[in-house]
Design goal:
- This protein has 157 residues and is α/β, with parallel strands linked by helices.
- It has a single domain, classed as NAD(P)-binding Rossmann-like Domain (Rossmann fold, 3-Layer(aba) Sandwich), CATH 3.40.50.720.
- 45% of the residues lie in helices and 19% in strands.
- Strands 2-1-3-4-7 form a five-stranded parallel sheet, with helices on both faces. It has a two-stranded antiparallel ribbon with strand order 5-6.
């Protein structure tokens, strides 16, 4: 997802927006948090990283202009730990059993965050379309590569 975002045409605008912003990333997992941190650092940003060992994480989160949550912990980002006007992006995803049915949830308490954040992108229904677009783009590139290799192999014989 993040590789696709970093290559997206609009990322140059995001880079400009992020300059001089206090960016906080929650989570360092290999599928979401770590790639997010690497992308930001590669682009020259120095995000504050919150993990399980971080002392007073809510105080740090409340100071952030941009909060990116990649923990998979239900509602870890809520109205009490973001400041008014923050930009909040949910990346983490978790599952729970409710009345015998598996339910998927994101890191953000949508009801609370929507009232305080200037902008928020929930995990569910938010960042997913970019992931799907990236996957489809990769399928097209792979298909073209295989077709090219196969065609050249046939011609060479």
């Amino acid at each position: 997802m993040l590789t696709a975002f970093s290559k997206a045409e609009g990322f140059s605008q995001a880079e400009e927006f992020l300059k001089e912003k206090n960016i906080v990333v929650l989570g360092k997992g290999r599928t979401a948090g770590a790639p997010t941190i690497r992308l930001l650092q590669k682009k020259g940003f120095n995000p504050t990283i919150i993990d399980l060992k971080t002392q007073h994480p809510n105080e740090i989160i409340r100071q952030a202009n941009v909060v990116i949550s990649a923990t998979g912990r239900k509602h870890i980002i809520n109205g009490s730990n973001i400041k008014n006007g923050a930009y909040v992006i949910g990346v983490g995803l978790g599952r729970e059993i409710v009345e015998g049915q598996e339910k998927v949830y994101g890191d953000i308490n949508d009801d609370e965050v929507s009232k305080k954040a200037k902008f928020y992108c929930p995990t569910i229904g938010g960042i997913g379309p970019l992931t799907v677009a990236s996957l489809l783009s990769n399928v097209v590139v792979a298909s073209k590569t295989i077709t090219h290799l196969y065609t050249n192999d046939i011609i060479a014989k």
